[in-house]
Amino acid sequence: MNALAKLKSITPSVSQIVRTYALKSDLKIKWVRPEKIPCYKPEKSGDLQALPKFAGNELMKDYRESKELETANEHVRNLFTLEHNRRREMVENFKEAMVRRVYRHDLDYGSMEAKLGLMTARIRSLQDYMDQFPRQSVVKVQLKELIDKRKRFLRYLRRWDYRRFEYVLEKLDLVYKPYPTHFHWITRKDSLRKLTNIHCEQIKESRLEEYRMQLESQQLDFLEKKLKTLEFIRKEQTECQVPVTVTKEEIQTVRKQYDELKQKRTAMAESLKESEEA
């Protein structure tokens, strides 16, 4: 009986020694799983521009310099425009335009820059096609392989000629997105940890900013007090005929800082008043 009585007396004290842990849910940070973007989309491939829309009255690539079409009938001329022909003719026109952005000479189709221009034109045409027909699995595989090939070419160019690499990215409107060094799954725990660190950094920055503003608000009174103190010390040392430790240059520097800060505060107050009145 005595043992049971001792246990009953101990149990309430044990329940009070339970430790409560702080949880990330207490910070009220909401995590939403990011939307999965296919690798062939422009957001992942790095293409900043889409396939442009050509005007329908443009001639095909092989008939631009034809003298007969210059004087031909309007109905005959329409047969050789992009509007009345296959989509391939428009893509060929776009390929030539992309190559002309980076080519080295008029007949250059084999350099690294020209190859990247051709691949970029082909990629953007396939991306436009996939937007219209997203269930075309064969085209999707071709597009993925072409994007990987362009990444390999860009990685090689970046390693051996960085200036040319930057030039190609600028001319073709590309962003180089290399493969990650190590793969990791997107998990809720890791994402919450990152969001918590970001939240703590924001709190720290906001408090530092408030403390900085508080110190700036006291700066004018501090400089005024410092100026009076230095003048009083110099005056007392001069009257007591002891070595003077405060020079006139120091007092002049503090007075200059005080006047500049006072003028700045006055100008800011006037501008705020004018903006409120407006």
Automatic annotation (TrEMBL):
Family: Belongs to the universal ribosomal protein uS15 family.
GO molecular function: RNA binding; structural constituent of ribosome
Listed GO biological process terms: mitochondrial translation
Name this protein carries in UniProt: Small ribosomal subunit protein uS15m
Gene3D superfamilies: S15/NS1, RNA-binding
Top-level taxonomy: Eukaryota, Metazoa, Ecdysozoa, Arthropoda, Hexapoda
Keywords: Coiled coil, Mitochondrion, Ribonucleoprotein, Ribosomal protein, Transit peptide
Cell compartments where the protein resides: Mitochondrion
Coiled-coil boundaries: 244-278
Main location: mitochondrion
Matches recorded under Pfam families: Ribosomal_S15 (PF00312)
SMART domains from the UniProt entry: Ribosomal_S15
One Gene Ontology cellular component annotation held by this UniProt entry: mitochondrial small ribosomal subunit
